[in-house]
Structure formats: structure tokens, C-alpha cells
Amino acid sequence: MAGASPFAAALEALRRPLEFAARDGFARLARVKELEATVHAAARRGAELAIPRDAVRAFEAVAARFAAPLAEAEREPAVRESLSSLAPFQEPAWAEQALERPVTVIPGVGPRRAALLAQRGLQSVLDLLLHLPSRYDDRRSLAVVGELAVGHRATFVARVLLADFVSTRGRGGRPMRAFQAVVGDETGTVNLKWFHGGDTLKKTVQKGATLLVTGDVRRWRFAKELTHPETELIEPAPPPPGEPASTAGSGGSGESAPPGESGAPGEAAPLGAPAAKPSTREVAPAPPADTSALRRIVPDYPSPEGLHPRALRGIVAAAVAEYADLVSGNLPDALARERGLPEPAEALRFVHDPPQAGDVTALLERRTPAHERLVLEELYLLELGLACERAQRAAEPALAFAGAAAHGVDTAIAALPWPLTGAQARAWREIRGDLARPHPMSRLLQGDVGSGKTAVAFLAAIAAAESGAQAALMAPTELLAEQHLRTLERLASGVAARGGRRLRVALLTSSLPRAEATATRRALAAGELDLVVGTHALVQGVVAFARLGLAIVDEQHRFGVLQRAALAAKARGELAPHLLVMTATPIPRTLALTVYGDLDISVIDELPPGRAAVATEILRAGEGRRVMAALRECVGRGEQAYVVYPVVEESEKSDLRAATTAAERIAAALPELRVDLVHGRLDAAARAAAMARFERGESAVLVATTVIEVGVDVPNATLMVVEHAERFGLAQLHQLRGRVGRGARPGRCLLVARASSEDGEARLRAMAETTDGFVIAERDLAIRGPGEFLGTRQSGRLPDLRIADLMRDARLIAVAREAALAAVRRDPTLQRSPALARSVQRRWGERLALVGVG
Ligand code: ADP
Ligand code: MG
Q: 601: pLDDT confidence band, cut at 50, 70 and 90?
């Protein structure tokens, strides 16, 4: 069993002798030697674990029953009752459910704190355990009081010599009451002063108590003083004669002494953040001179506003002390062994309460085996979820495009206006291999702007048609769908002219005239069309296919998984369609593995030959004259130019006005040439007409809003002017620049930027420095971080990881993925590992729509 928790192991160790004694109707009961001693010891060991009190009490009850040798007649009921009292804990899900208990089960956490913790997403005990420190305070070197240096922060141990409320003068000489203590060690004394929270403090900061003090040392009149230092009670004040020993300091014992719950925030002593079991601390308090237990590395947590970091430290410590040993691991044992990783419970203790000898730098950088264990546990579950999703889909039946299709495609390839590039041919081989199988393909085709993905998609559509199936291509914008239609029709008629199959292609978008749309839908349902190109209108309910065999999604990053799934669901009957996802947003490989973990990946890493370079210049606002000069120069050579304006919803009106004004100004400056304007508000026919004029070279300049961002393909266009370049994302800028340099003549890209943020400048610099899509993607990722980079927060694609960081832990993603794939190969639905299946379901089931797992 992979990574059984210490709790599960202890329970098992206890049940073994009990069950042995109960075997065969207690037949051997009399012959079991040392039953009491064995059971007692096992139960004691269980009670010592970092587990919740209900479990501790169960172990303790058994230990008590078996504390002394039992009479013959007492043995059977003792065994029977012990077994039944342990039964509930034996339930496989008991520990899992216990870890899901709300944070309010932790001593000191009431509704107020629970609400604060919830702001940080900390709702269950497990959330607390997995809330890792963001920093560590190295308190291993303790100062001595006599050598405290004014102006420095110090940690030292001292005994309280005097403690009381005093009248003092606050700011402006106002009289006020402060709580003050004089503390000292053999080298000297120093004053501690608090202006609030004294009522709570006076319970622990008592004459004779020993404290660990941390704070800034300052000079006050002729003495040294610390105001509002952090104090930790090491040893309570001795009880006055005749009273029982105080148990103050046993914060972990629960009901009493919540960590800093009352009083001013942070001023209540945390009362022994219970790293060790409180009981041991009570029995054997460290002698004051021995401060080794205090010289520790103290974790610091990101805490919600209104919750003192130290209070959170106490809360997490309490969670660790009461629950850590319930945590089990999912990572395969062999992998954990091979990498020398500690068990999860041990890893949690290590990161929350590092050992004295810990390497603070490694801790800070999360480079310890303990961190690796926790990161891998998380990534392993994620990759398992993705692998299951993928296995699930791969197991469905699909139509295999084989035999006849291969011949038809070969004819089409020979009929293309140019030979496939090496990279296109390789990608096509991979796709063809998938399509020939009777299970659905799930493949991502990644290739930089202009690398020729459309031609590959065209071949896939031919293969579908040759097999009697239909294909659908979904694009993110109408403009792009229209562009695709023109490209595909051109390719289709070229192939037909050279004796290949004539692909019947049509467009379906929501701005199509009613009659036309109806006719297309009817033809589609009747099987009279081979390929339909459209926008998300394709996934609407009224669209039906006669036989959808291939779904192609272009510019995947704009669609959510749901839309992808909706398109695939358009296939009727038993057969799932093959899925080809195309993106020009190069995603760093490791990230792609996670984000597109359910897809195989093909890469087109080569541009068609003869592409000219694109020179990029950054201009500042006010250099309008240079822009106009560049435009004149370009059109003077008979080439064409784009001028792009950003349009965002919030300022749509003024944005459109800017684009319109620019179009008029340019038209006025170039009276002999046609200047067109396209934007999202234009109706489909007008837009298509303008695009067609530009493609045919009838207009010289196309002023556009970002609707031309993707897909437009006019080789004679050599100049791209982007106005307000600072408002565009890096991927968008790269896409826009990709519109030029598509022919043999060199392209030029002018980015006109206003003053902008640091990120904005970083984007412009990246554009000026490189044209390599992968480098751009890496930069973009670095600037924005993975969440925004993928733009998938809305589409629900980027898994919200708690511990792992897709950037920092990139290399571990590959490790986790490999392990997950191996596990799923052995057991595709994880039915042989119920605990693992439950973990995957609980963590990712909903997000990944896993239905068949477990
Ligand atoms: P993208 O990958 O950005 O979608 P496209 O499919 O739009 O790229 O192709 C960009 C341009 O490259 C188009 O003009 C297309 O006709 C051309 N093209 C595609 N494949 C080849 C090839 N093998 N040789 C020459 N030109 C090609
Ligand atoms: Mg494209």
C-alpha cells in the first residue's frame, strides 16, 4: 500500500494481535502469550501519534483495558469490545473525512478566525496542513541580555523578575497604563513593555516564568527596552506554595488556552506552539538553562489580514500536532524510495517545524526532500486526473479513417500548391496514425504563426471525407472563420482541379443571413457537406451533423474545455469524433504537459521556405510622422499595410472613434489609394467584402481593430503598425506581427506605444528582441505567471495547485506525469487502488469531469 499513514499503520499494528486472539471464535485465546503487554504497547504507540483527540482516546481506552494481566474470563470481552471500539476508525475513509473537518475543530479557532482563514481558502484541517510557510525565521542563535544591541532585532531567553501594570506617559505626555516586565539572565536585565494586551499577558508573563523573547531593542532613557516583543512561554512561573502545578503552556491539549484567541492580536502568548505532544512537554519541561529546544527555525505563514502571523503559526502547529499522522501518501512507494522522499506526515512536520539542523536556504527555496514529497504528491494526483480523463476518452470507440482515406490524402498532398514542409509532414504522419485507430484522437497541433497549420487541418478533413465522415472547424472569431473558409476553399478547388476529391465546404456563423444558415444546417444534417467552418455557433443546439467524425478547434486558448467538449458531443451515435486542437500560442513544453495533459502534442517548428524577416521598431506617441512615412514607403512599392487599434469593451466608443479617425486621416494622405476599415461592429457582409478587397490587393491599407489578430493571410502585406501597442498582450503582439513577412519581401512592424507600466515595457522589449514564438512565450509566462498566461482561469483549465508551482517545479511535472501514466496503463480506472481513486476524484473529479474513475 503506497504511503499508509502512521495512524493507519498503528491501527493495523494494534488490530493484528486483537484479531489473532479473536480468531476461530476465541478458540486460542488462552494460548495467546503476553496479549495484554503486546496490545497495551501497540495502543500506547497509537495514542502518542499526532492524531485527533477522538482517536487518541480510543487508543488510550484500549491501552487502559490491557494495562495489566487480565483474568481468563475478562479477556474475551476486552478483545471483543476493543475491536468494536476501533471499528469506526478502520473505515477507509475515516482519516480522509477527519482531515476534511472544518478549521474550527482546532483549539483557538472560532467563527471569527474561521472566516478570516476562509479568505485565504483555508477551510479544512487539511487546508491548514497544506498551507506551507512562505518564510522561515532563523532563531537558532540566541542573544544574551547583557549584549543586546540597540537598534537590532534579537531573540533571547530570560526569566521574569518583575511584572506589573505601571503608569507611564504615552505620546504627547498623556498618562497611560502599560504592562511592563523586567526580565534578565545571568548577564543583565532589560525592560519589556506593552501598551495593550496586558490583561492576557499577565497570565503568562509572571514573576519566575521563563520566556523566549523576540523583538527590536531600543534605548529608553538610560536603559534598553523592547516594546511589544513577541514572547513565548518556555516555563511557567512556579505555583505559589500549596497549589497544584499549573498546566499553562499546554496549548496543544485543546480546550484551554487557545493560541492567542483573546486580547489584542498577537499579544497573547501562543502558549507553546505544540510541535511535540503537549503531554511530554508537561512531564519534562526543558530546564531553563537548556535552550536548545528554542533555537529553532520558525515558520512564517502568509496570513489573512486581521489574523496575527503568530496566531496562524499556532493554529497550523496545532493542526500538525493533532492531524499530521492521519495524512497518507499516494505516490508509488518505489518512486518515493528512489528519490529518497520522506513519508507525507514526516514531510509536513519537516516543513512546518524544521529541525534545528535544517538548511534555511533550502527551506526558503523549497528545495528539501520534504517539499519535493509534497509537491510530487500534488502533481501526481493532477497528472493522474488528466491521465484518467485521457484514458477515458481514448477508450471510446471512434471511426477509423483508414485504407481508402490514405490514398485520397496522398492525392491531395500531391495536389497542394507547394510541398509540405518537413515539420508539416511529420505532424501529419502523427495525426494520420491517430486517425487510423478506432479510438478518438486527442491531439494538440502547436505551430508558430504562419507555420501552415491550416494545410494540415485540411488534410485531416480530406481523410474524414474519404472515410465518409464530416469534419467541423471551430474558430474563435467570425473573421477568422471567414478567412479559413476562403483558404480551405482555395485548397479544395486546387486539389479538385488536379484530380483529387472535391471537399464540400461551407460557413456557419451567427451573422450569416437566416436563409443561408438554414440551408447550410440542412445540408450538414443531410450529409451533403464534408466540412463546416464556423464559430461557437457550431456548438449551438440547432446544429446537427449527419456523421461528425472530426472536430478541429483553432486557437484553442480562446475556448474552454466545455466548448471543446460540446463540439465533440455533436457526433451522434456511438462513435466519438477525433479531436484536433490547433494553437499558435507556443506553450513551454512542461506547461503544455499539464495544461493539455489530456492531449498528445505535435509541433510544427519550421516555417515554410522563403519567408522574409520582420524588423520590429518601437515608436513613441508623437512620432506619427514616421508612421505616415512608413505607410507611404510601403504602398509606394505596391505593398500593403495594416494599422491596428485596440478596442476594449470599457472604452469601445472612443477606441472605435480613434480607429475611424485614423482611417480617414490615412485616406486623406493617400488620396489615390483605397483605405478600408474593419472592426467588430461591422456586419459580416461588409467585413467580408473589405477583407476580400484587401486580399485581392484592391485596398492598400487596412485599418482594423484586433479582429484581424489571428489567421489573416495576405502575403503582399509587409507593414504592420500597432497603435497603443502597450495595451496588447505579448501573444497578441506576436500574432499581429505574424501577419506580415508572409511573402518573399521583408516585413516591418512598428509598435507605437504610450508611456506604460513596467510589464508593458517588458513586453515591448521582448518584441524588439526576438521573433521566436517559443522565446516570446517563455517571456510572456515570466511576465504574467502561468495563470494569466494561459488565460484559463475562466475556462477552468489551469488547475489551482496549492503547493506545486508550475514554473518552479517544472521538472517534477514530468516525473509525476510519467508515474501517473504508468499507473493508468496498469489500471485505467484505478479500480484496484480505491484510496487513490478517491483522492483523484475528490481533488479533480469535478474539474476534469471524470466519470469512470474508481
Ligand atoms: P498558421 O499556422 O498560422 O495557421 P497558415 O496555415 O495560415 O499558418 O499558413 C500560413 C501561410 O503559409 C499560408 O499562406 C499558406 O498558404 C502558406 N503555407 C502553408 N504551408 C506551406 C508550405 N508547405 N509551403 C509554402 N507555403 C505554405
Ligand atoms: Mg491559423
A: confident
CA distance 260 to 119: 19
Exposed, middle or buried, 169 (CB in 10 Å: 0-12/13-18/19+)? exposed
| Distance between Cα 549 and ligand 1 center (Å) | 24
Residue 568 is classified by DSSP as H
Give me the pLDDT at residue 473, please. 94
Predicted pLDDT at 294: 64
Ligand 1 contact, 418 CB (< 6 A): yes
pLDDT category at 306 given cuts 50, 70, 90 is confident
Residue of the CA atom closest to atom 25 of ligand 1: 608
The half-sphere exposure of 166 on its side-chain side, counting CA atoms within 13 A, is: 14
φ and ψ at residue 198, rounded to 5 degrees: -60, -35
Measured between alpha carbons, how far is 675 from 353 in angstroms, rounded to an integer?
Answer: 69
Ligand nearest to the CA of 480: 2
**Rounded to a whole number, what is the distance in angstroms from the first to the last CA of the chain?**
16
What average pLDDT does range 719-727 have in this prediction?
94
pLDDT (0 to 100) of residue 261: 36
The secondary structure of 792-835, three-state, reads: CCCCCCCCCCCCCCCCCCHHHHHHHHHHHHHHHHHCCCCCCCHH
What φ, ψ does residue 610 adopt, rounded to 5°?
80, 10
- Give the H or E element holding residue 74: helix 72-90
Would you say the CB of residue 446 lies under 6 angstroms from ligand 1? Answer: no
Q: Which cell numbers in the block locate residue 62?
A: 484500549
Say what percent of the chain tops pLDDT 70: 84
Range from 413-427, 510-524, 687-701, 817-831 that averages highest in pLDDT:
413-427
Beta sheet of 218-220, edge-to-edge order? 218-220, 223-227, 188-194, 175-185, 153-169, 210-216, 230-235
Q: Is 497 exposed, middle or buried (0-12, 13-18, 19+ CB in 10 A)?
A: exposed
Pocket mutation for ligand 1, best pick of 451, 459, 605, 607 (most atoms within 8 Å of C-beta): 451
Higher pLDDT, 272 or 568: 568
Q: Which pLDDT score is estimated for 8? A: 94
Q: How far is the CA of 712 from the centre of ligand 2 (A)?
A: 8
CA gap 590, 606 in Å, rounded = 20
Q: Is the per-residue pLDDT at 454 higher than 70?
A: yes
Query: Worst-scoring range by mean pLDDT, 74-83, 149-158, 181-190, 589-598?
Result: 589-598
Q: Which residue has the higher pLDDT, 610 or 6?
A: 6
Asked whether residue 632 carries a pLDDT value surpassing 90, the answer given is yes
| Residue (of 103, 124, 50) closest to 315 by Cα position | 103
Q: Is 455 in the pocket of ligand 1 (CB under 6 A)?
A: yes
Q: How far is it, in rounded angstroms, from Cα 823 to Cα 820? A: 5
Could you give the CA distance from residue 228 to residue 216 in angstroms, rounded to a whole number? 9
Question: Is the predicted pLDDT of residue 529 greater than 90, yes or no?
Answer: yes
Contact 588, 778 (CB under 8 A): yes
Please tell me the residue having the least CA distance from ligand 1 atom 14: 713
Nearest CA to ligand 1 atom 23: 420
Looking at the CA of residue 424, tell me the nearest atom of ligand 1: 23
Measured distance CA(20)–CA(14) in Å, rounded: 11
Q: Is 456 in the pocket of ligand 1 (CB under 6 A)?
A: no
Q: 584 CB under 6 A from ligand 1?
A: yes
